[in-house]
Amino acid sequence: MERAAVVSGRRSPSVPEYNISTSTLSFDQHFTTTAEGILLLAEIVCGMLVWILVGGTEYFQLSALCWVMFVAILCWVQTVFLFIIYLTGAHKRISQIPWTTLSLCLNCSAAALYLVTAVVDALSVNQAIKGRHNYNCWAASAFFAFLTTLCYAGSSYLSYRAWKTTEEEQ
């Protein structure tokens, strides 16, 4: 027993003690019921459908559909990260980042990119033979791309309102 006390006594000076806070991120269960949360979920689901429908075909034969895949996956990943940040309340803990401005920029750029992508996707449907697998998937992906564009436009509007409110308070 004496030896354990001696050993622990020898280790304590060599190991510095840090004041480590074990704060955990909180789960905001009400976020998914807000308009912003619902739109983010819709963007994730519809955006995922776009890249799954295009990715399940021979899209690499058309360079325009490679663009559709790039934008769909890029925006989807950004939206998933933003959703996780808002869902866990990390945006409240990291106050150095202007979240309303960041959200506004991401949503507006995603809406613009997705509008171009939806048009490109819709025009690419003509390259497939009607009734075949590629045609059906590309037509469905064009529909979901336009739906995703509307979701991003709605999120842009909500982000603009939040940004404007934040700017007026300062």
UniProtKB/TrEMBL annotation:
Question: Could you tell me which InterPro entries the record lists for this protein?
Answer: MAL (IPR013295), Marvel (IPR008253), MARVEL-CKLF_proteins (IPR050578)
| Protein origin, superkingdom | Eukaryota
Instruction: Using the record's annotation, list all stretches that form the MARVEL domain.
Output: 31-164
Task: Tell me the membrane topology, using the record's own terms.
Answer: Multi-pass membrane protein
Q: Which UniProt keywords apply?
A: Membrane, Transmembrane, Transmembrane helix
User: What is the protein's major site of localization?
Assistant: membrane
**Subcellular location(s) per record:** Membrane
The membrane-spanning stretches of this chain are 37-54, 60-87, 99-120, 140-160
Among PROSITE patterns, the record links this protein to:
MARVEL
GO BP term (any one):
myelination
Task: Give one GO molecular function term.
Answer: structural constituent of myelin sheath
Gene Ontology cellular-component terms listed = membrane
Name of protein: CKLF-like MARVEL transmembrane domain containing 8b
